[in-house]
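Protocol step 4 of 5: obtain the predicted structure for the target chain.
Materials: sequence only (see below). No template structures provided, no constraints applied. The aim of this step is simply to have a reference model before the mutagenesis design in step 5. Sequence pasted as it appears in the construct record:
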Amino acid sequence: MGFTADKPAISSLESAESSIIVAALQGKPEAWESLVRAHQQVVFRLCYLMLGDSDEAEDISQEAFLRAARALDRFDLSRPFRPWLLSIAANLARNRRRSIGRQLNALKRLWQSEPHPITNIEESTVQRWQAQTLWQAIRRLNWADQEVIYLRYFLEVPIEEVAESLGVAAGTVKSRLHRAVGRLRAIVDRDFPGLREAVFESGNLNNKASSAQGQIE
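Step 4 output (structure tokens):
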């Protein structure tokens, strides 16, 4: 027995995707279309979470795929494709958000000054309220905290892929997540105490965030 087990083998899925990328590099349009279909949903979701606007998210998603197509010949086939693509999308979304920063800051101030706590919610709307309120709380965090929470908890990207997307070590991702969740807990305790039990006291942040995908609009 040697030490080869210390290096993770490329999964069959990654190997198959590498073959598709090679075909796309050879100019086969159906190969690129296959990559787009496989990843368009997660890219759009990330952009939407970061920007909060479906039209903006659609524009940035399309731009991310265009940028990826242009840079595909520089992609390292030994690495997974999704983190590389998500890093492109995240960078574009960050730039777009900076360009509309004044409007977003104005909306943020409005939300912060008028939290509008909701009571007597019908049972059928509780999950929707929790999802929207959790998203509102997260959007009060700084940009880096939002990004790592969206990737790990909302999109359920594995730690290793989050690290690839952000260009940091897996241990750094874990530290950032710990700090980000702590700051989120403080915001919830202060401004959205009705959300505390559902998200934190039950240790349910991961489930609550992933289920929120279908509730956020």
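Step 4 remarks: The longest helix spans residues 29-51. Residues 1-10 have pLDDT under 50 and may be disordered.
Proceed to step 5.
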